[in-house]
From TrEMBL:
The lineage of its organism: Bacteria, Candidatus Zambryskiibacteriota. The gene is rpsS. One of its GO terms (molecular function) is rRNA binding. Residues 80-117 are annotated as: Disordered. Residues 86-98 have a biased composition (Basic and acidic residues). PANTHER family: RIBOSOMAL PROTEIN S19P FAMILY MEMBER (PTHR11880), SMALL RIBOSOMAL SUBUNIT PROTEIN US19M (PTHR11880:SF8). Gene3D superfamilies: 30s Ribosomal Protein S19, Chain A. PROSITE patterns: RIBOSOMAL_S19. The keyword RNA-binding applies. This is Small ribosomal subunit protein uS19. InterPro entries: Ribosomal_uS19, Ribosomal_uS19_bac-type, Ribosomal_uS19_CS, Ribosomal_uS19_SF. SUPFAM superfamilies: Ribosomal protein S19. It comes from Candidatus Zambryskibacteria bacterium RIFCSPHIGHO2_02_38_10.5.
Length: 117
């Protein structure tokens, strides 16, 4: 559910205090654990370190991000590819195909130079 429109967007006061009176280019990374904080226009240009549960991921706030939450730009889950033995075999075949294509391309370019004798 979204927040009630009469309450307005949730912007963490501590985050606003950290950026108050500072210039975006001179300020370093601002660490925050407030993933639910809505990005306001005053935050544009600042570099935030948003906590994802393990580390702080750097997020450079742009104009397109206004209205979204800080947590949206700091994923909490890391994708590990699917597949096992069969997936590895398919990747190996694809690699071999790329190598064969590169070798045949080299052979085609080398023939005209040798044919000029």
């Amino acid at each position: 559910m979204t927040r009630s429109s009469k309450k307005g967007p949730y912007v963490d006061e501590r985050v606003l205090k950290k950026i108050e009176g500072k210039k975006p280019l001179e300020t370093g990374v601002i660490k925050t654990w407030s993933r639910a904080c809505v990005i306001s226009p005053e935050m544009v240009g600042f570099n935030f370190g948003v906590h994802n549960g393990r580390t702080h991921l750097e997020v450079l706030v742009s104009e397109d991000m206004v209205g979204h939450r800080l947590g949206e730009f700091s994923p909490t889950k890391k994708f590990i590819k699917h597949g096992g033995k069969m997936q590895k075999e398919q990747e190996q075949k694809a690699k071999e195909g790329e190598i064969a294509a590169a070798q045949s391309a080299k052979a085609v370019t080398a023939e005209p130079a040798g044919a000029k004798k």
